[in-house]
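Supplementary Methods, section 5.1.

A reviewer requested that the exact input to the structure prediction be made available. We therefore reproduce it here, unchanged from the version used in the analyses.
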Amino acid sequence: MRSLKLLVLVLLAAVFAIAAAVATAKPVRLATQDAEDPLQVRPALVSYTGDGTGYLAGRISSPRHQDRGGLQWMSWGRKRAVAHGYNWLNHCRPSCVEGNFSRHRAIITARRPRHGLFTRLVIKFRLQGRWRYDRRFLEKFSSYWVWGICGTHYTKPC
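The structure derived from this sequence is encoded token-by-token as follows.
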């Protein structure tokens, strides 16, 4: 009987220790390529191309007014985060400097957390009446994070 009580106490202590660890765990962050705050929870804006020709934000954002509106995060968990927003793309005509941005309705899914960071990003967006998919993986170059393109000749598949 005494060993049963001891076993119950040990199990209860283990359950409380696990619950406390989960409660104090930091939320998983997403790389935004923002120079001042590159790793964020539920960011309003995510630049994902590395050259500024594509970013994810709200409906009324624009390259000149990126602080207006933002992504609507429908869920943010330890394994996955989902947002609704817009994929803003620069057409780069006649050049990327002189090009115009257009917005495309998008669903953004971040997944595969590693060491407190989401490492995969899937951007599902409408372009020319069809849903398109842009799949990205997170990689670190020296001191900053970038979203690489999945499945090209030079990158790994996702």
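Helices lie at 2-24. These observations are discussed further in the main text.
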